[in-house]
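The material for today's practical consists of a large collection of protein records. Backbone structure tokens are a discrete shorthand for how the chain folds in space. An example says more than a description, so a record of this kind follows:
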Amino acid sequence: MATKRIRLPGPPPTEGSGSTPLTIEFLVEQPFLATREHARFVEFAEACAHYRYIGVCHGRPGVGKTRSAREFSSFPDLGEYAALRPIAALLGEKVARCRAVFYTVSVSNTPKTIDAVLGLNLIKLGYARLTVAGGSQDEITHDAARIACPLVIVDEADRLTIKSLEHLRDMADRHGFGLILMGMPGLEKRLARYAQLYSRIGSRRCGGS
């Protein structure tokens, strides 16, 4: 990611003082480039969505896993959207392009915190997708909205506790979505210790190799 430096307002340094102007540097996100690695991630994610696999994607930091996942998912900000309310045209366009829910695990996580964020976004996106597809909110049920999302991508999966991992597996069963767990090298070995979850993994991918 590139950086940009700007000069802060203030009086110019006096000649011979040896001081320099105050500046601030911040990160600037570069335009996304669809690389061969991204094409492989898309193929992997589409398989997880289609077959409702649990997939694992791991790799070193900085290789582009998160950027590829965000680009693929095109998950919109649903913070202002309320289920069964009319959808603004711009949000409707974003919902139509969305292919997955993207969720970043917090450092402190429990089944309750996962439900509060991921569970809520699943329901919201389900209602929004069905509304966009049908043209209205009429006859949309909670059960239909609950299973309307084909894929959930979970970033920073290394942070998940045992209870949170089990809760995600249970959510995938109940909601019927494919699930991708993304993290650092060693994630798959950690998951292998949980036989009930590991036996469900149908696709594996090492990002940035």
